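Quick entry between incubations.
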Amino acid sequence: MLPLETNGSEDLMTDLFTYIDGHQDEFVQSLKEWIAIPSDSSDPLLRKELIKMVEITAERIQALGATVELIDMGQEQLNDGQSVPFPKAILAQLGNDPSKATICFYGHVDVQPAKMEDGWITDPYNMTERNENLYGRGATDNKGPVLAWINAVDTYKALNQEIPVNIKFIIEGVEETGSQGLEDLIKGNSSFFSDVDYIVISDNVRLSRKPALTYGTRGDAYFFVEVQSGTKDLHSGTFGGIIHESMRDLVYLLANLVDSSGHILIPGIYDDVSPLTEEERKLYDDIDFDLEEHQNNSGVNTFLYSTKEEILQHLWRYPCLSIHGIEGAFSGYGSKTVIPGKVIGKFSIRLVPDMKIPVVNKQVINHLKSVFAKLKSPNKLVVTLQIGALPWIANVNDLQYEAARNAIRKVTPEMIRDGSTIPLARIFQDLTKKSIMMLPIGGADDGEHSQNEKISRSNYIQGTKIFASFFLELAKLHKDLQMNNDPLTIKTSQQNGS
Amino acid sequence: MLPLETNGSEDLMTDLFTYIDGHQDEFVQSLKEWIAIPSDSSDPLLRKELIKMVEITAERIQALGATVELIDMGQEQLNDGQSVPFPKAILAQLGNDPSKATICFYGHVDVQPAKMEDGWITDPYNMTERNENLYGRGATDNKGPVLAWINAVDTYKALNQEIPVNIKFIIEGVEETGSQGLEDLIKGNSSFFSDVDYIVISDNVRLSRKPALTYGTRGDAYFFVEVQSGTKDLHSGTFGGIIHESMRDLVYLLANLVDSSGHILIPGIYDDVSPLTEEERKLYDDIDFDLEEHQNNSGVNTFLYSTKEEILQHLWRYPCLSIHGIEGAFSGYGSKTVIPGKVIGKFSIRLVPDMKIPVVNKQVINHLKSVFAKLKSPNKLVVTLQIGALPWIANVNDLQYEAARNAIRKVTPEMIRDGSTIPLARIFQDLTKKSIMMLPIGGADDGEHSQNEKISRSNYIQGTKIFASFFLELAKLHKDLQMNNDPLTIKTSQQNGS
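Done. Structure below.
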């Protein structure tokens, strides 16, 4: 199964790349406009901005010539009893030639929170270019990659070239808060997915400077542990000494989640982790992974492990637990002598095959209740699972992996997994049974979810080129596959050379 | 030593009270205007507002006819290496008749932080009256009491009456962050204090519905414990599992400060606490303290202790430790999958006689270093004492206590101590050797430092009356004292009856 290389398609690729290089400032400007919208899905006060972001995305996709449908996702119930509308989801279709492969691109246009005072050097919502890097919230996660895909399609349109594949889009606005409702959306729109051949996600980053394809992600179980001592905050001078303080209980609970070697202290949590086979162990030997560079990117002096193999295994195939913060306590600059009345500790466990969310949920609740019981505290404890996303793993021999390897010319992509969570990969796999591929265009040092998130100008533009050539490569392999599988089919669709 | 009661002074008191009742809406309006200025001393971004607040206060005192001096307090060094100007301090004098007593009033016009999202029902900076309570940040701590004192003086002026005492003011703008620089200010202005007879502070609240005089306060040692794992925040998917997370270390440190019975775990911390004598123990029997009401005010179901005596002792004469919060971790609504790079835990220990700040500081640092050593963490630990304020205790037989007891007619004030900290009480006592009295006008349920801080309209107006009549009562007792001590002095100053 070799790619059907014709001079025509090689010429077209050159034209596409020339156009993309010539229009890069325009593509960068589009990204700047998208980043200017603070589409933070975790903040209900910014919900209007998020809804606006989804609308702008829908208009942009419609301008490609696609048929766009905006799907109502209902209301989000907030903890205080209020509710706000979820942003709509976008389902879109461009082309429906049955002889062509159909690729569905998944992306999201919501972002993580970002505030100057967290340590941003530039305004997170005013994209700023420094040293050929484009800094701004959402630059790499996930506005940059979504736009790169749109730019790639746009390039065919601008050159008056037929797009060699049918393209579908599924774009959502609540990925950063757990993609609520999307599973139902997929289930409820099975006809949309029935003619999809391949699903592509570009919502993670590479492992090194080398382009990569991702064939697995960890899942995530995000917990809130709430301790309430009373109905309001109190002055520590007026009440300190006689109160069962909620913060005292909470820090004790949080201190009993993970030890200083990174080992999770929740009984039974490792029981379902799939054992490391000799075959899998060998895979890690071949990965090109610059430990020193990774350490530099992290800004950390010492990792928990010292070898490449241990590091990759603990990022890809073992669970971990991170404590993210506390809501309700004093978090500002300076000093405040408050006894918080209600505090919510937030932590999450990255899940790996074959951990099960209901089992993990039960283990966490039982453990925290048992630790809390030792405190003999009269305070109220509530533990809730806020987000539950399963891990995902793909077959790296699927056709679209081969097409992507061809698209990334002259550079052999790494076959990697990813420690972070893209819930839809697993959901798509379970519900559609299609081949899923993650094709990251962002760099390992892009700082997704961190201060000073960025995407490099070159990765953004190179990513646009990879997507554009991926369409061609996939079309070729798909045609070969159809011819091999079904020699009687008369091929009417031709690549347009120019 | 009986008060010299004359019909003239009784008539004047009636006139003063009638005027105050008739102008209460005007007094309430003044408080609303002061609360509208967000003079939060902990937030460097609000420093201009704080400086404006001090200027407005200075103008208001000048309008009483006082000579006002604004004292430069230098620059505040921020943790990030920047600096902002401290607000100036106010020294003011109204009257210098050597035959009259001279009272110096201490107060502050800075406030604690306040944000709607902390759970305020009304805008903290837009004073709102509900059920005859005036809600707003600073209503009781300390703008209301400062204005009540000014209103009291103003009432004499409005009625064209001679004020029976000389009045001095010392007003500062950084009480909530530790009154930095004020000790030097007092030392550097000894001539201002040399002719002061009595110092009055009204910066705390009553214990019950009964008016009270406060003769002691706890001190406060406020610590920052900073743990840094790296130079920036990281994504818990991309880096979780290989990082020595700073939050893990911090929650373990914080969990080792105090046990669930309220006992502080820092070795040696109780060594200098003065033993409870039989004489002191008996004092608690007489205090009118409604445990149930105190519990209702607190919004808490269960206290650490069940008897009045234990509760009061643990609020007044034993130290306690409160964990206030964490800076640098995720503190917002919703979920964020961040591994914070640098986190600062904030806690404070209320100090009692005879604890010493350098000793406590050393004990805290040694304890945290020893706990941290057990973690064998490569992270960086820094422990700093941010605020160190000593406890204070007064002689309840001083003349001004008697005058205040007279001023609060028909209601016997409680002789109480206070669990919270007013650093200046102790500093004044040490540096000026004058008689210090705290005369609270706010109620136990006012919620200083909490959401929905308020002062009741009646306490604010009644407080103005108490201050106005206190001037008269003190003048009478002071005159008696002078006549008894120095029979040759010819009294030229008379109370003006009307």
